[in-house]
Amino acid sequence: MEEGGTEADKLAAIEQGIANLARHLSVVGEFGVPCVVAVNRRPEDSDAEVELVRRLAVEHGAFAEVNDGFAHGGLGAADLAHAVVEACEQPNSFDRCTRSTSRSSRRSRPSRRASTARER
């Protein structure tokens, strides 16, 4: 969308684009862990835009907070930090041993470089 559209146009674009966020949240949900969405506020963002993104993220099952760090530094990110702590304290069903693509299974395979060196 072009910059400078009306507020209604911007809100409609957010509503339409939220499907992408919903898909990402669905993928995270498959791993059984809570998800936190950082709604990064930029100076040109309206309160309505920021709140819509936050609300839609919550509706799709995420913890979500506004990150005002761009304008206010660490203090602007405090609510987001609290949301991360809260999400970490939630029960989860993540079990890396049941994932076939875990890092440990990828590391156990010899690298191509190692096998080439052994052949010499």
Description:
By secondary structure, the chain is mostly helical. 57% of the residues lie in helices and 8% in strands. It has a two-stranded parallel ribbon with strand order 1-2. α1 packs parallel to α2. The C terminus is likely disordered.
* Main sheet strand line-up: 1-2
Series of H and E elements:
HEHEHHHH
Proportion of strand residues: 5-15%
What is the makeup of the main sheet?
2 strands, parallel
Radius of gyration: 20 Å
Shape: flat
Number of discrete helical segments: 6
Low-confidence stretches: 100-120
Measured between the Cα atoms of the first and last residue, the distance is 57 Å
How do the helices and strands line up, and which of them pair or pack?
Blueprint: H1 7-30, E1 36-40, H2 47-59, E2 63-67, H3 69-76, H4 78-88, H5 103-107, H6 112-119
Parallel strand pairs: 1-2
Helix pairs in contact: 1-2
Short note summarizing the structure:
This protein has 120 residues and is mostly helical.
Fill in the keyword field for this structure.
mainly alpha, disordered C terminus, 2 strands, 120 residues
